[in-house]
Write a structure and sequence with these properties.
The structure holds two protein chains of two kinds. Chain A is mainly α. Chain B is of the alpha+beta class. In chain B, the strands form five sheets. In chain B, strands 1, 8, 9, 10, 11, 12, 13, 17, 18, 19 and 20 form an eleven-stranded mixed beta sheet that branches. Chain B has a four-stranded antiparallel beta sheet with strand order 4-5-7-6, with helices on one face. A three-stranded antiparallel beta sheet of chain B has the order 14-15-16, with no helix packed on it. In chain B, helix 7 runs antiparallel to helix 10. Classes of the chains: A mainly alpha, B alpha+beta. Chains A and B meet through helix 2, helix 3, helix 5, helix 7 and helix 10 of A and helix 1, helix 4 and helix 11 of B.
Chain lengths: ~300, ~525
C-alpha cells in the first residue's frame, strides 16, 4: 500500500507540474495582456514599459515561469494585478461557496442518479426504465443556463420559495446545486443502470434470490453495493465537470465563488489570478480522484493496492 | 435495519432543510428591518475601490470620492473641494484654494498636505496619471492652499479635476508598502464604505460629514449588488429585491414602463460609439473612399434596429456633453454625411472602385473591396455590426464581421493589425481627440496621421483661455469632418429603472447618481 501511495503522490506532483506549464503557456499565448487592461486607452508608451517592468512582465518567459513556480511551492500564488488582493486571499474568500456548491451538487446528483439508475435497472424495458433514461438524457443535455433560468422563474420568481440570486447560506445554494447536479445525475443514472444490469445477471444474485432474500435486500445489499464501484469512479470524474459547470451556474445565480472569479480574471487578463486558480482547481481535481481511488478498497475489500 | 437507517437519513435531510429555512427567513427579513436601504443592481464589480489602481470607475466606487471641481447640470466647471484658483503667468503655475470644512472618511481634514500626498501617489501609480498633466512640483502654501507647477501648460486639468480619477484620497490609511487602500478606503465622497463582500456586494452608509446641502441623507445605507446575468438582474428588480437597476437592457424597457411603481430615467451617455478603421491600410488612404463609407451609413436605422431607439445619432467627432462640442460642426457634419447611397457610389467610382463582381462587391485593379470588421462580444454591438454590414454592402463594400474579446481588441489595435472596428470612447474633454484619437503617436486605434491636426490639438492642450481653446477644437473638428478618418455613430441613452423613491436624480453630464438628491419613500 505504501509503495502505491508513494507512486500515486509522485504522479500527482508530475501532473500538477505539467498543468502549471500548460496553464502558463496558454495564458501567455492568448492575445491581450494585463498592462493594456490596467492602463486602458489612456496609456503612453513609457507608462506601458514602466508597468511591464514593475509587474516583471519584461523578463524572459522562462524566468517568469520559474520565479512563479518557486513562489507557488512556498504557498505564494502572487498578487492580482488588477484588484491588489493576493490570489490565496481571493481563493480563501471564495472557496467556501464553490466547495459547498460542488458538494451539494455531488450529493444531489449521486442520490438522484443512483435512485433513477436502480429503478431503470430493476424495471428494465418497462415504461419506468424508458422514462428514467429520458430524464437522464435531459439532465445530461439541457444547458446549465437554461435549467438555471427555468428553476429561478418557477421556484424563486413565481413561487417565492428560494432567493433568486446571491449567497445567503444553504438555502440560496439549493437551486444552483440542482442546476449543477442535474448533469451529474444523468451520467450517474446511466452508469448505475448498466452496472446494475451486469450485476443482476450474476450467479450469486440468483443464489441469494433462491435463498429467499427480500427484494429490498437483494437490490441494495447484494446488487447495488457491487455495482457501485464504476459509479464512484464516475462521481470522482464528475468533480472536474462540476468545476467547469460552476462558471456558468455561479454567473447566473450571482454567487461569489471561484467560477465567477475566473471569468472576470480571464477577461481582464489577470495572469496571477488565472494561473493560481487553474492550478488550484487542477490540484483539487487530482486530489479528489486520488481519494476516490482509495475509497475503492473500503467499498470492495477484494481490491488491494500493491 | 436498512429501512431504519434510510428513515433516519431522510429525517436528517428534512431537519437540515427546516434549519436552513429558518436561516433564510432571517435573511429575507434583513431588508424589511432596514427600510431605508437602497439596493443597486450592477453588472460587474469594480476592479478595485482604489481610484489610483482601478481602470474602471462606476457607481460602486465613484461615491467614495469627492472631486476637486465639478460640472453643473449645464456642463460648466464649478467649485467643489477647490473653492477658487489663480492661473499665474503663462499658465504653467496655478494656485488652488481648498474649502476648509471637508473631511476624509478617516476623520482627517482634506487639506493642502493631504491633496499633495494624494497627487504624488496618483502620479507614481495611477494608470490615469497622464490626466493630471506633466507635473513638475506641488508646493503647499498654507493649510488649505497649494500650487501646482507643470512642465508644460496643461489646459485639460480643470475638466479632468471634475472626474474621480484626480479626486483626493487619504494616503494616511496606506500601510508601510503604500498598499492596502482597497481594503479600508478613505475618500471624502458622500458614501463611506462599510463592508466589502468580494464578488457579491459593497455596502456603504451616508457619510455624516459630507455636505448634504443642509438636509439629512434620505437613506440609511446603500448596497451595490453585482449580478452579471441580465435575466437574473431583471428578475431581482421585478421581484423588488433591487431598488435601482442601472443600464437596463433595451429589450426590457417597454415591459418595465408598464409597471406603475417603476420610474425609468434616461440620461444621454458621454460615450460615443464609432465605426473606425486603420487609416494606414492602403484601402483607406483615399479621402473619397472614407467619405463614401460615411455617406453609406444610416445611423437612425442602426439605433432603431439594435438599440430600440434608445440613442442619439452623432455626426461630428464630439458628442454634446463633451467640452469642445460645437453645434456648428455637428450641423455641418450632418449636412455632409446624411445617408446618400448614390453620392457614396459616385465617390467610390471616382476613387477607382468602379467595377463590380457577380456578388455586387466593388473592385479596383482586380481586387474586391472586402474588409474585416472587429467587434466585441456585446450583443448590441454585434447587431449594430450586422446592420452596418448590410448598409455598406449597398455601395458594394463587403464587410466580414469578426467577434473578438475586448482585451484582444485593446491589445491588437495599437499594433495596426486590424482593418475596421466598432468601438467607442468616453471622456468629458475634447483633449480626447489628442491623447486617444488623432494626436501625434497617440492615434491608437485609427492610426491617422495629419501634421496640421497634430499642431492644432497640441496648441489646444496648452491654451489656458477656454474660449480660444474651444475655437481651436472647432478648427480641428472641421478638418476631421472633411477628412472623415472615422465615422461617429451615436451616444446611447443610459437607462435606469427605480422604485420606491421620493426623489432620485442622475447627473445629466457625468451620468452618476446624485446621492444628495436620493430620498427613499417612507
Amino acid at each position: 500500500m505504501s509503495s502505491y501511495l508513494f507512486k500515486r503522490i509522485f504522479t500527482m506532483i508530475i501532473t500538477i507540474f505539467g498543468v502549471s506549464v500548460l496553464v502558463f503557456m496558454i495564458i501567455h499565448l492568448i492575445p491581450g495582456n494585463p498592462v493594456n487592461h490596467i492602463l486602458g486607452d489612456y496609456a503612453t508608451e513609457e507608462s506601458i514599459k514602466e508597468l511591464e517592468m514593475r509587474l516583471g512582465l519584461d523578463r524572459p518567459i522562462l524566468v517568469q515561469y520559474f520565479s512563479y513556480m518557486f513562489q507557488a511551492i512556498q504557498g505564494d500564488l502572487g498578487t492580482s494585478y488588477i484588484t491588489g488582493y493576493t490570489v490565496v486571499e481571493e481563493i480563501l474568500n471564495r472557496i467556501p461557496i464553490t466547495a459547498q456548491l460542488a458538494l451539494y451538487s455531488i450529493i444531489f446528483g449521486s442520490i438522484t442518479g443512483i435512485i433513477i439508475g436502480v429503478v431503470a435497472a430493476v424495471k428494465k424495458n418497462t415504461i419506468y426504465d424508458q422514462l428514467a433514461m429520458v430524464l437522464a438524457l435531459i439532465g445530461i443535455s439541457a444547458p446549465g443556463f437554461w435549467i438555471a433560468l427555468f428553476l429561478i422563474l418557477l421556484f424563486s420568481y413565481q413561487l417565492s420559495i428560494f432567493p433568486i440570486s446571491g449567497y445567503s447560506g444553504f438555502y440560496s445554494l439549493i437551486l444552483p446545486s440542482i442546476t449543477l447536479g442535474l448533469g451529474t445525475a444523468g451520467s450517474i443514472a446511466r452508469m448505475t443502470r448498466s452496472s446494475m444490469l451486469d450485476v443482476i445477471k450474476q450467479d450469486y444474485i440468483r443464489t441469494a434470490k433462491a435463498k429467499g432474500a427480500g427484494s429490498y435486500r437483494l437490490i441494495f445489499r447484494h446488487s447495488l453495493q457491487n455495482a457501485i464501484i464504476p459509479v464512484v469512479t464516475l462521481i470522482g470524474m464528475q468533480f472536474g465537470y462540476l468545476m467547469a459547470g460552476a462558471v456558468v451556474t455561479e454567473t447566473v445565480f450571482a454567487l461569489p465563488g471561484l467560477g465567477s472569479l475566473i471569468v472576470s480574471a480571464i477577461s481582464t487578463r489577470d495572469i496571477p489570478t488565472v494561473q493560481g486558480l487553474l492550478l488550484f482547481m487542477a490540484a483539487m481535481i487530482i486530489i479528489v480522484n486520488f481519494v476516490v481511488d482509495l475509497l475503492y478498497t473500503k467499498l470492495d475489500p477484494r481490491i488491494q493496492y500493491e | 435495519m436498512y429501512r431504519k437507517r434510510f428513515i433516519v437519513f431522510m429525517m436528517l435531510i428534512v431537519f437540515v432543510l427546516i434549519v436552513s429555512g429558518c436561516n433564510r427567513s432571517k435573511d429575507s427579513d434583513a431588508k424589511k428591518g432596514n427600510d431605508r436601504e437602497v439596493v443597486v443592481g450592477l453588472v460587474s464589480e469594480p476592479d478595485s475601490v482604489d481610484i489610483h489602481r482601478t481602470s474602471s470607475t462606476g457607481e460602486a466606487n465613484i461615491p467614495l470620492y469627492d472631486t476637486l471641481l465639478k460640472l453643473d447640470n449645464d456642463g460648466n466647471i464649478v467649485p467643489n473641494l477647490i473653492t477658487d484658483y489663480e492661473v499665474i503667468g503663462d499658465g504653467k503655475e496655478v494656485i488652488f484654494n481648498l474649502k476648509e470644512d471637508a473631511v476624509f472618511h478617516s476623520g482627517k481634514p482634506v487639506n493642502a498636505e493631504a491633496v499633495k500626498l494624494s497627487f504624488e501617489r496618483l502620479v507614481s501609480s495611477s494608470p490615469f496619471s497622464t490626466n493630471a498633466g506633466d507635473i513638475d512640483s506641488i508646493e503647499v502654501l498654507s493649510d488649505y492652499s497649494f500650487k501646482i507647477t507643470w512642465k508644460n501648460q496643461f489646459a485639460p486639468f480643470f475638466i479632468n479635476a471634475t472626474t474621480p480619477f484626480l479626486a483626493p484620497l487619504d494616503v494616511s490609511v496606506l500601510n508601510g508598502e503604500g498598499e492596502g487602500f482597497e481594503k479600508e478606503p478613505s475618500g471624502s465622497g458622500p458614501l463611506k464604505l462599510v463592508k466589502i463582500n468580494r464578488g457579491d456586494s459593497l455596502v456603504y452608509e451616508p457619510y455624516k460629514d459630507f455636505n448634504w446641502e443642509g438636509q439629512k441623507p434620505g437613506f440609511d445605507s446603500v448596497k451595490f449588488r453585482f449580478i452579471p446575468d441580465e435575466e437574473t438582474r431583471i428578475l431581482e428588480f421585478k421581484k423588488g429585491n433591487v431598488d435601482v437597476l442601472l443600464n437596463v437592457p433595451y429589450q426590457y424597457i417597454e415591459d418595465l414602463e408598464k409597471d406603475s411603481e417603476v420610474t425609468i430615467k434616461r440620461v444621454q451617455s458621454d460615450t460615443l460609439s464609432y465605426l473606425g478603421w486603420n487609416n494606414k491600410q492602403p484601402i483607406f488612404q483615399d479621402v473619397k473612399v472614407r467619405q463614401a463609407l460615411a455617406l453609406a451609413i444610416d445611423r437612425e436605422s442602426i439605433i432603431d434596429n439594435t438599440l430600440n431607439g434608445e440613442a442619439q445619432a452623432v455626426f461630428g467627432p464630439l458628442p454634446k456633453t463633451v467640452f469642445g462640442y460645437s453645434e456648428k460642426i455637428e450641423t455641418m457634419a450632418r449636412d455632409k454625411y446624411t445617408r446618400d447611397i448614390e453620392a457614396a457610389k459616385k465617390l467610390l467610382a471616382e476613387a477607382g472602385w468602379n467595377e463590380t463582381n457577380k456578388d455586387g462587391v466593388v473592385m479596383k485593379d482586380g481586387k474586391e473591396f472586402s474588409v474585416e470588421l472587429w467587434v466585441d462580444d456585446d450583443p448590441a454591438n454585434q447587431r449594430a455590426a450586422q446592420v452596418i454590414q448590410n448598409q455598406l454592402m449597398e455601395i458594394g463594400v463587403k464587410i466580414n464581421i469578426a467577434v473578438k474579446e475586448s482585451a484582444t481588441i485593446i491589445e491588437q489595435t495599437p499594433k495596426g493589425v486590424h482593418e475596421m472596428l466598432l468601438w467607442s470612447y468616453g471622456w468629458p474633454d475634447a483633449d480626447v481627440l489628442n491623447f486617444l484619437l488623432f494626436g501625434k503617436d497617440k492615434s491608437k486605434r485609427l492610426h491617422y496621421e495629419n501634421e496640421k491636426i497634430y499642431s492644432i490639438l497640441d496648441k489646444a492642450a496648452i491654451e489656458m483661455d477656454q474660449e480660444a481653446r474651444s475655437k481651436l477644437y472647432e478648427e480641428a473638428q472641421e478638418m476631421l469632418v472633411e477628412e472623415s478618418p472615422f465615422i461617429p455613430l451615436y451616444v446611447k441613452e443610459n437607462v435606469t429603472a427605480i422604485r420606491n423613491f421620493e426623489s432620485f436624480e442622475i447627473h445629466p453630464i457625468n451620468n452618476t447618481i446624485e446621492w444628495t438628491s436620493v430620498k427613499v419613500k417612507e
